[in-house]
Structures are given as structure tokens and as C-alpha cells.
Amino acid sequence: MRNFLAEHSGAFDPDEVHILIAAFDKAWETIQASGVVYAQAKAEAVRAILAKHIIEAAKQGERDYARLRDGALLALAQSNLRNSPPPPPR
Q1: Residue 89 forms part of a structural domain
Q2: Is 2 exposed, middle or buried (0-12, 13-18, 19+ CB in 10 A)?
């Protein structure tokens, strides 16, 4: 998350950065608690999706920790749906 925030240095004050990092950490904890296990490369891609969504939502003015977290999880779920292989033919 901090790597992605570095790309937006000066965009957020320290209190906002704290909120964004907390939302990211909680979203990642939620994924880990679900039992889903990712290979290292996939885990980094998932973390990138979460971070990018949280930063974009914050750039649009969102500062509510829970909405940032939930929005990131929703973005991940939608990303997984777009990247899922098509169902086998019947």
C-alpha cells in the first residue's frame, strides 16, 4: 500500500494516510480470514487491486474506513468475476 501511496505523495495528509492504510490492512485481513490462499505473485496482484481501489476512492473524496475497505473487497470480487474462465459448454 505504501508503494502505491508514494505515487500520490502530497495528495493525502497523515491522518488520511492512516485511514487508507487501515482500510487496506483490514481488507487484506478479511481475505486471509476467508481461507483463500494465493501464490505469491497472485497475492501481490490482489494487494495491488485493493490498494489502487482505496486510493482512487480516496482521491474522489471518500474517507470512511469501512466504505473504503468494503469498496476494495467489492472491486476485488468484480475483478475475479471478469478474470474467471468461461463455464464449460454443456
Answers
A1: no
A2: exposed
Using alpha carbons only, how large is the chain's radius of gyration in Å? 14
Contact yes or no for 28/47 (Cβ under 8 A): yes
Residue 31 lies in a domain: yes
Q: How many domains does the chain have?
A: 1
- Position 8 in a domain: yes
2 and 24 Cβ atoms separated by less than 8 Å: no
- In three-state secondary structure terms, 24 is helix
At 9-57, the pLDDT tens digits run 788 999 999 999 999 999 999 999 999 888 888 899 999 999 999 999 9
> Residue holding cell 471478469?
82
**Is the residue at 27 inside a domain?**
yes
The rounded distance, in Å, linking the Cα atoms of 52 and 64 is 16
Give the domain range for residue 20.
2-83
Model-level pTM?
Answer: 0.83
